[in-house]
Amino acid sequence: MAKGKDVRVRVILECNSCVRNDINKKSRGISRYITQKNRHNTPSRLELRKFCPYCYKHTIHGEIKK
């Protein structure tokens, strides 16, 4: 079975506010989550509200490229 033909793929979600704060060096790190998505049902980039331990609140986590 070919690697690129799978319907469910693993994606990495990264905190959007930590990435912006990384320029100012206010954040201690960048929060990342690993999850799966169905390529046919969600062809666009995935965005979920997850808890960020560095911001101490729920923020938008967007899909990044591997």
Automatic annotation (TrEMBL):
<dbReference type="InterPro" id="IPR038584">
    <property type="entry name" value="Ribosomal_bL33_sf"/>
</dbReference>
<dbReference type="GO" id="GO:0003735">
    <property type="term" value="F:structural constituent of ribosome"/>
</dbReference>
<dbReference type="GO" id="GO:0006412">
    <property type="term" value="P:translation"/>
</dbReference>
<dbReference type="GO" id="GO:1990904">
    <property type="term" value="C:ribonucleoprotein complex"/>
</dbReference>
<keyword id="KW-0687">Ribonucleoprotein</keyword>
<dbReference type="GO" id="GO:0009507">
    <property type="term" value="C:chloroplast"/>
</dbReference>
<keyword id="KW-0934">Plastid</keyword>
<dbReference type="Pfam" id="PF00471">
    <property type="entry name" value="Ribosomal_L33"/>
</dbReference>
<dbReference type="InterPro" id="IPR001705">
    <property type="entry name" value="Ribosomal_bL33"/>
</dbReference>
<dbReference type="InterPro" id="IPR011332">
    <property type="entry name" value="Ribosomal_zn-bd"/>
</dbReference>
<keyword id="KW-0150">Chloroplast</keyword>
<protein>
    <recommendedName>
        <fullName>Large ribosomal subunit protein bL33c</fullName>
    </recommendedName>
</protein>
<dbReference type="GO" id="GO:0005840">
    <property type="term" value="C:ribosome"/>
</dbReference>
<dbReference type="InterPro" id="IPR018264">
    <property type="entry name" value="Ribosomal_bL33_CS"/>
</dbReference>
<keyword id="KW-0689">Ribosomal protein</keyword>
<comment type="similarity">
    <text>Belongs to the bacterial ribosomal protein bL33 family.</text>
</comment>
